[in-house]
Design brief:
The protein is mainly beta. The chain is built from three helices and 15 strands. Helix content is about 15%, strand content about 50%.
Length: about 180
């Protein structure tokens, strides 16, 4: 049953357009699988009128500009953007292609990687997350670490709230 739940979560993470492929180790096995990551990674260029512009480097380009629409529904907006929009920061964005063509993508999740990077601890659950600069722990807008998949629920400079299958965990940044 545990493997079935993992495969279902894995399938949900794989859906979406591909930006990069990553490998993951299946639990209780030594088998590696390749997963397509739909996350868009980029550095802040500009933000105004519900639009975030990122410089995105890829194998095909040296630094394309990607325009991402940030929906303005107040309730959703607070769940879409985790961490502040700050000049010079790096971001991980999951979104849908804009079929109207006004923007490149419509954001579903925007994560400030510059704020997220570091070592985070939750003493009660005995979990420590070491989120380093290579971003290998981000997959389709989720954190994949410690054998679990977490949704970033809230992010402040010294506190991180993650949601996962067993509930919500609050983490404190370690110095």
């Amino acid at each position: 049953m545990k493997k079935l739940v993992f495969v279902a979560v894995l399938f949900a993470l794989v859906c979406g357009c591909s930006q990069e492929k990553k490998t993951a180790l299946l639990p209780d096995t030594n088998k590696e699988i390749t997963i397509e990551d739909s996350t868009i990674y980029g550095e802040y260029l500009d933000a105004a009128n519900h639009t975030l512009e990122l410089s995105v480097a890829s194998a095909d380009s040296a630094g394309d500009t990607v325009r991402i629409y940030l929906p303005d529904d107040t309730l959703e907006y607070s769940r879409i953007i985790v961490g502040d929009i700050v000049a010079g920061s790096r971001y991980a964005v999951v979104g849908e292609k804009d079929v109207d063509g006004e923007w490149d993508y419509i954001a579903k999740k925007v994560i400030n990687l510059s704020t997220l990077m570091g070592v985070w601890a939750n003493e009660g659950a005995g979990k420590t997350l070491n989120l380093n600069e290579d971003g290998s722990w981000i997959m389709n807008g989720h954190i994949v670490a410690e054998g679990d998949t977490f949704d970033v629920y809230n992010l402040l400079p010294d506190t991180l709230t993650l949601e996962y299958k067993e509930g919500i965990l609050d983490f404190i940044r370690q110095k």
